[in-house]
Amino acid sequence: MWWVLIWIVLALGALAFLGLLGWRLIKQVIELGRELGRSGEKVATALEPVHEAYRPEPPVLLDPAGTTAPGLVGPGAARHGA
User: Which of 21, 27, 43, 74 is the most buried (most CB within 10 A)?
Assistant: First the structure.
């Protein structure tokens, strides 16, 4: 009969140990969320000054005979398969 008590004590000890590990993991996840929030605020303030839209420069090797950069519309467009 005493072996039943030993198993109960062992099971309760294991449950307590797993509970402590779970609590520690929950605390780490909460701290990670706080850190991500702080990092997000820093990134948001760093990106605020960027208001203009991105416009790529024309390619260096663009045919100067009449094609225009992004859409290749003009006399040279047929040569490029557009």
Answer: 74
Separation CA 82–CA 72 (nearest Å): 7
Number of domains in the chain: 1
74: left (phi over 0), alpha (psi -120 to 50) or beta: left
- Residue 60's nearest CA partner among 52, 69, 48, 51 is 69
Q: Are 71 and 58 in contact (CB under 8 A)?
A: no
- Alpha helices per DSSP H over 1-82: 2-47
Domain residues for 62? Answer: 11-70
- For residue 79, being part of any structural domain is answered with no
Residues ≥6 apart with Cβ < 8 Å to 69:
56, 57, 58, 59, 62
Does the reported pTM lie above 0.70? no
For residue 76, count CB atoms less than 10 angstroms from its CB and return exposed for 0-12, middle for 13-18, buried for 19 or more.
middle
